Amino acid sequence: MVAKSKLANKQRFKKVAKKSAKTNANAKKPKRLPKTTKTKDKSNKTSTPVIQKQPEIDNGEDMLDMVDEDDLQFLKSAINNKQYSMFNNVRVPGGKGKKKKIQKDDDTLENNYENEIDEQPKIKVKALLPIKTKQGIVKREVEHEDNSEEEEEDAGVEENEDKGDDDVSSDEEDSPAENTDVDVSQPITPAQLLLQRAEILQKKKLHIGTLSSGLLENPEEKITNFRTLIKLLDDETPEVYITIRKLGIVALLEVFKDLLPSYQIKAQETDGVKLKKDTLKLQKYETSLLQYYKKYLQKLEKFAGVLYKKRGDNRVRTQGEKNVGEVAVHAMCDLLITHPYFNFAPNLVQAIVPFLNNVNRNVRILVATALKTVFKEDKKEEITLKIIRVINHYLKSHSHNVNPEMLEILLSLRIKDVNLDQDKEIEIKGKKLNAHKANILAKLSKKEKKRKKRLQALEHELLETKAEENKQTKLKNLTEITKFLFGIYFRILKSSTNTKVLSVTLEGLAKFAHCINLEFYVDIVNVLDKLLAEDWLGYKEKLHCIQTVFAILSGQGEALNLDPTRFYVNLYAGMLDIHAGRNEKDFAVLLRTIMIGIIQRRKKITNKRIIGFAKRLVMLSLQSLHGGAVGSLGVVKNILQLCKAADVLLDVDNECGDGKFNAELDDPEYCNASSTALYELSLLSRHYHPIVGKYAVNIAKGVPATGEGSLLPIYGKCTPEELYSMFDMSEMAFNPSIPVPKKVQVSNKVKRHAFVDCEFRQKCFKRLKCTNGTYFMHI
User: Using the 8-state DSSP alphabet, how is residue 736 labeled?
Assistant: First the structure.
């Protein structure tokens, strides 16, 4: 039975092979038969092929025998009408744009099916929700193109972006011009170039925004997005690379400002130590963040280096590159302000400080503003000390030939509470306390001594909880800052001849004179006295010299045996050099110097000197703008309030004085100002500015606090410096607004003036009689 079955199968397979050979005679590539293995037949001793798998060359003939003709017609019509979605997803083998050759033998179902697939357009039918109407249910369908491959590619790009891999879409973004439809053979219009640039820029913006938002949402998982953003800074697309670099710098700046911690990230050795998964994850994140931050700072320093022209570098920088450099400097300044205690803060200081001497004024102002902000917000004074050290080194290497902005920022230092003589004072107090302590301990019993030790231990612990160590560290840093500061100032005083730098130095000495060590007071005063005798020194610099001397003598220098008369004479002699036409801006320095030298030291100078300065201030107010006039009258008002001897200036009787007033004498001690009166107040009372007139009337009536002639509290309580800044004309605006003057008819009659001294009248005026009978007067 077994042999008969084998023989029947053999004959059956032969018939199948013959039929398949006939049907596939015209095929392009005939299908190969499955591999066969040779087996030995024991009865016939011949090898027969044994089929291991079901043959795939049947072409559905056995299945067609089982299908009825009605069902077969139904299937054909369903395929032609595309009624089943399962047939829509079948793709043509061989890729896009390649069609199979249609077989001539269309008798089988498989050939008809393949032909239908070849002719089928790449359009998908998507079934929508049906609508129920009065006529019944209406089915809805939407045809759309088959973009399955493009959707798969887009999904792959998004997935790689989420993982932080930027290699997927880099080729497309780096060469967007290749995908445009611009005909290279035809000339391109400016409108097409602008449109192309806008499209490229929009893609880059979206890419930068996506990466940045991903970092802010989940920084630990998407930390590698930093790599893509930093690579964008090296973009070389000719149309948009300047804008892309600016956008990349600003985007990374905002991300780092939000993500950087307030503490320093330190490298920890974990060899042989088992850590938790969360700890390892945090360490890996912090290490990666620090590495990307370092790369970002290196890029910023590279871009900012364009603003400096080194020796031998003859490259011409475009304005766009310079703008990128300014943005890079701005980013470094913002990072230093936001995270002054994070890693690489000293490196930021080292890179920023040289820009205080840059040619570009906007860059200098930007860096100076940032460093002033750091000085104000620095609580530990560590970064401030680092900035002062870098400035000190830069000044030494450039022989103090720098822009004044580098020294102006030092005026914002907060070192008013520093006392360089504190160490000596502490030693003296310590010796006294130790002697007193030894006397007390000698009288204590053993129990009391033990109790004393326990109390001391408890006080030490309490000091640690109150962060006394931080206070001591801060005080130590302040002391170092003060030493570097005065070292800079003293070197400039001895060697520099740059008037702008010297002016700022003298202003700084005047502001921080109370912090100078007593041992240097005499030497500083002598140096300033020699400077006043120099011809190349300007009036503002002289005022700063005098202000510094008065500041020294008003503080700890009161114990010094110095005669400041020569400085008072210099100040009095140069007061009338200020007028509205040339150097009105120096009025603030003059007022500050007079307040220190006259008002604060009024008890150590004579009444004659005070009266002489009051008279000259009123004379000065006649040749100044209303801001300077109000400031001068404010000083006179304070003098009349604090010095009763100055009331003699309100008396018009000349018999009470020692002699005649000599306005040309430069010494206030011997000009006999007490023999005159404040006649200028009559002119100032009719001043074009109403506040000047009110101050003149108030002084003329004896400075009353209430009643007639009194001032409003808003003006009466202001200092002279505040009055000057309040009514300053630097912005070319009146405060308050000035009323329009009334029209006055000028009479032709000559007003005769009465002079007490005839010689003075002949010296000042010459009368010339004109042809029409009027008089013309020359000064």
Answer: S
